[in-house]
UniProtKB/TrEMBL annotation:
Basic and acidic residues: bias regions: 106-132
Region span, Disordered: 103-132
Name of the protein this chain belongs to: VWFA domain-containing protein
Organism: Cryomorpha ignava
Pfam family, one: VWA_2
Superkingdom in the source lineage: Bacteria
VWFA domain location: 177-275
């Protein structure tokens, strides 16, 4: 008779210090407050009252003191106005990486894989006959000697070119990526916080690329009424504004940045709720928040086609469900021959990381 045997659940002992237990909560709150330390600490005090995060022996005030002593916060009097340090900014990025990428199955360490085999860097486990020009380092001598023995039989040993086998390898490439993030007001409309997950993904992707693929480049472009480039260190402080969505400005800046990059593999990832509503024109802005304006839409489609001509694929991560907006994204994707992913905020990070690995192709 088959069945299940149940044993008493004994939780693992948590050997972390009080500071180590509170730090992840603080880093999460700082992300939601866009780097506002005072607001994050106010939230921590409220959480402490509701859930008893601290004890009489270690209070929130003790935690704050440790944040300064351990280099996570700057003193207000050091000429910088206080706030997060570079150490805490990196800690926020690493936490985002753990939250987003930690859910995914990690592949073998190395460079980006391509769909091509040949002279490369990483063994695939496959073998092929030796070809003139192959490096001697690639020869599988065990298989080659066995082939010679099978061919020659018992007797004098001889090794000929036709006996040689080499280890097949995969080519590792470098890539240049621009991540575009929509910071228009619609990214926080209707009580749904879309900007915090987008920001987390950007921080995780930046930490992932700089640590795993240091030869790759990542540029981050935000777009509202206008578009501008921000640095990795600026990501924790990113917030939406009272902006429309100038997708055209974002695409123009992204394409300009990629034209300057020497890598042959270039791509754009765009996180948006899908509705372009603004153009910069002489003397100001042309805005239309009602529906899809054909003037604005056509500009976007033209740029999608232009990016296709210069071999820059665009992957659009659509985080809204409106059918008419999805239709625009479909037309945009067709013009670029890119890819559209309609994703909830929960799965956004996994899709981006999967696509980052997937889009590694060697261009001849």
């Amino acid at each position: 008779m088959q069945g299940f045997n149940f044993t008493e659940y004994i939780p693992e002992k948590d050997d972390r210090s009080p500071f180590e237990k509170l730090l992840p909560i603080f880093l999460e709150l700082v992300t939601h407050t866009s780097g506002d330390v005072e607001e994050a600490l106010e939230w921590m005090r409220e959480l402490d009252k509701a859930h008893n995060l601290t004890t009489e022996n270690y209070t929130i005030d003790d935690f704050i003191e440790d944040l300064f002593e351990k280099g996570y916060l700057r003193e207000p009097g050091d000429g910088t106005g206080g706030g997060l340090t570079a150490k805490s900014e990196q800690a926020v990025r690493r936490r985002s990486l753990d939250q987003v990428f930690g859910k995914m199955k990690r592949s073998a360490e190395g460079g980006h894989r391509t769909n091509e085999a040949g002279k490369g860097d990483e063994p695939t486990g496959d073998k092929r006959p030796y070809r003139f020009g192959d490096s001697t380092h690639e020869i599988d001598f065990s298989n080659s000697i066995r082939n010679a023995q099978v061919r020659g039989g018992i007797g004098d040993f001889s090794l000929f070119e036709q006996d040689l086998e080499v280890n097949e390898t995969e080519i590792k490439t470098s890539a240049s990526t621009v991540l575009m993030i929509d910071i228009s007001h619609s990214m926080i409309l209707y009580g749904e916080d879309r900007i915090t997950p987008a920001k987390k993904v950007a921080m995780a992707l930046s930490e992932f690329i700089t640590t795993r693929y240091p030869k790759d480049t990542l540029d981050i472009v935000v777009f509202g009424n206008d578009a501008w480039q921000i640095g990795i260190k600026d990501l924790p402080y990113l917030k939406v504004g009272p902006f429309h969505t100038n997708t055209v400005a974002g695409l123009l800046l992204a394409m300009d940045l990629l034209r300057r990059r020497k890598n042959s593999n270039k791509q754009i990832f765009m996180i948006t709720d899908g509705k372009p509503s603004c153009l910069k024109v002489e003397g100001g802005y042309y805005k239309n928040s009602f529906g899809l304006d054909p003037v604005i839409v056509n500009k976007c489609l033209n740029l999608a086609g232009e990016a296709r001509k210069i071999h820059i694929p665009i992957t659009t991560f659509m985080i809204a469900e409106d059918p008419y907006l999805q239709k625009f994204v479909e037309d945009f994707t067709e013009a670029n021959n890119g890819r559209a992913i309609y994703t909830g905020l929960g799965g956004l990070g996994e899709w981006i990381f999967s696509d980052y690995e997937r889009n590694r192709k060697r261009k001849g």
